[in-house]
């Protein structure tokens, strides 16, 4: 096994474990009279999404920095910037775009959640 493979193996293993433990897509059921956006916003489990989609690069506390991921404990970026990055990914390709994976409501909820890692904001 090469040195690169030895470094990436734990990340790959963690990713496979996370996918096996709940990486499937979920549907949101609407209550009578609610719009899909309202129903979705009420049912978003950001911690679950974080564990499935984000923890491999950002870590449990937002400071792992795997593969060049931003340290969210030090980031002072505003909500609009974070929504854009989560939606479209980063220009350098380090951050994966999630516009085809998460709903706009989930993206906004995740952006707000990332701000909780930096208590100085």
From TrEMBL:
SUPFAM superfamilies: Cytochrome c. The keyword Oxidoreductase does not apply. It comes from the Bacteria. This is Cytochrome c. The keyword ATP-binding does not apply. InterPro entries: Cyt_c-like_dom, Cyt_c-like_dom_sf. Residues 1-22 form the signal peptide. Residues 41-118 form the Cytochrome c domain. It comes from Neolewinella litorea. Keywords: Heme, Iron, Metal-binding, Signal. It holds the Pfam family Cytochrome_CBB3. GO terms for molecular function: electron transfer activity; heme binding; metal ion binding.
């Amino acid at each position: 096994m090469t040195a690169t493979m030895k470094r990436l193996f734990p990340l790959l293993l963690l990713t496979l474990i996370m996918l096996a433990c709940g990486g499937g897509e979920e549907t949101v059921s609407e209550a009578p009279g609610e719009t899909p956006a309202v129903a979705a916003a009420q049912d978003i489990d950001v911690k679950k999404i974080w564990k499935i989609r984000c923890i491999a690069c950002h870590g449990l506390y937002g400071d792992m920095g795997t593969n060049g991921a931003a340290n969210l404990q030090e980031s002072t970026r505003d909500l609009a910037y974070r929504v854009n990055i989560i939606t479209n990914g980063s220009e350098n390709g380090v951050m994966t775009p999630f516009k085809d994976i998460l709903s706009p409501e989930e993206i906004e909820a995740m952006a707000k959640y990332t701000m909780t890692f930096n208590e100085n904001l």
